[in-house]
């Protein structure tokens, strides 16, 4: 028998932009920022930096999110995979 809890509560984090439908006139001139998914809120999914509700219609994996567009606010920043991390294999030579 299996005792593994079959729940999706702990899903992988994903990345998305802010839901611009909140704004009457979305600003299309400034660079878009991609945030990391955080906890659910009444309005949707909050970003980890707590500043935005994310648009789930267009998401990235954390690895695929363009680096120049990644949110650097506290919370999101720590969640991005380190781009300069050594390709870990633990294979000393
Ligand atoms: Zn953020």
Structure characteristics:
93 residues; globular; 0% helix; 4 strands; four-stranded antiparallel beta sheet; single chain; 25% strand; mainly beta; binds zinc ion
Order of helices and strands: EEEE
Helix content: under 10%
Can you tell me the overall shape? Answer: globular
Largest sheet: 4 strands, antiparallel
- Order of strands, widest sheet: 3-2-1-4
Number of strands: 4
Strand fraction equals 15-25%
> What class, by secondary structure content?
mainly beta
Uncertain parts: none
What is the rounded distance between the termini? Answer: 43 Å
Mean pLDDT figure: 79
Bound molecules: zinc ion
> Mind telling me the C-alpha Rg?
16 Å
DSSP helical segment count: 0
Q: Any overview of this molecule?
A:
The chain is globular. It starts with 14 loop residues before the first strand and ends in a 33-residue tail after the last strand. 16% of the residues are buried. The protein has no helices and 4 strands. With 93 residues, it is an all-beta fold. The chain has a domain at 15-79. A 4-stranded antiparallel beta sheet has the order 3-2-1-4, with no helix packed on it. The structure holds zinc ion. The site of zinc ion has 8 residues, from loops.
